[in-house]
């Protein structure tokens, strides 16, 4: 029997996205955003939701671009810090020693040390309530060669992405391999 938990912001797992933006003066800023995910395949697009009170909100509105940086487990402390400090008060990249890189495709920086980056131009803004959802068309995905498998595709076990559990406010790593998507369920289909 299922127990009602009420209307809460729970989904397991939630991704840990580090959103990169430039402010009006061109200073790079990053923010930890747990409310986000892929939202369209054509055009390829990702959605992130942030509160208007954040420094990142104003930056996305101003620059019409952002990056989504996927931290590996070795950068979990930095990723957490990016969610508890304000870019309006601190230079988060300087504090952590991580390197901002200017995208050549969109008006936003990405983090050199993170294994996976999505460069996005803003295509839609949706006012939801406390959060505003920004939908960015993915102009390019950049990945460190060290996280690619033999066939050139991303290997999740090499990326070591950080996952977030909203209910207990905790970070986790990726678990075990369970099977090939769009394949293991075929045995369930009737012949």
Automatic annotation (TrEMBL):
Residues 9-153 form the Flavin reductase like domain. It comes from the Bacteria. The keyword Metal-binding does not apply. Pfam families: Flavin_Reduct. SUPFAM superfamilies: FMN-binding split barrel. Keywords: Flavoprotein. Its cofactor is FMN. Transmembrane segments: none annotated. Signal peptide: none annotated. SMART domains: Flavin_Reduct. Belongs to the flavoredoxin family. This is Flavoprotein oxygenases DIM6NTAB family.
């Amino acid at each position: 029997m299922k127990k009602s938990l009420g209307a809460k912001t729970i989904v397991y797992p939630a991704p840990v996205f580090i959103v990169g933006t430039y402010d009006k003066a061109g200073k790079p800023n990053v923010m930890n955003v747990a409310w986000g995910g892929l939202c369209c395949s054509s055009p390829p697009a990702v959605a992130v939701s942030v509160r208007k009170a954040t420094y990142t909100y104003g930056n996305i509105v101003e620059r019409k671009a952002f990056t989504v940086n996927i931290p590996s487990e070795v950068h979990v402390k930095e990723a957490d810090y990016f969610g508890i400090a304000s870019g309006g008060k601190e230079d988060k990249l300087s504090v952590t020693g991580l390197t901002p890189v200017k995208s050549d495709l969109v008006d936003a920086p990405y983090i050199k040390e993170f294994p996976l980056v999505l460069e996005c131009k803003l295509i839609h803004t949706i006012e939801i309530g406390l959060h505003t959802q920004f939908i960015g068309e993915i102009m390019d995905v950049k990945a460190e060669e060290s996280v690619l498998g033999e066939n050139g595709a991303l290997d999740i076990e090499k990326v070591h992405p950080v996952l977030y559990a909203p209910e207990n406010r905790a970070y986790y790593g990726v678990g075990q391999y369970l099977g090939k998507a769009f394949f293991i369920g075929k045995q369930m289909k009737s012949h």
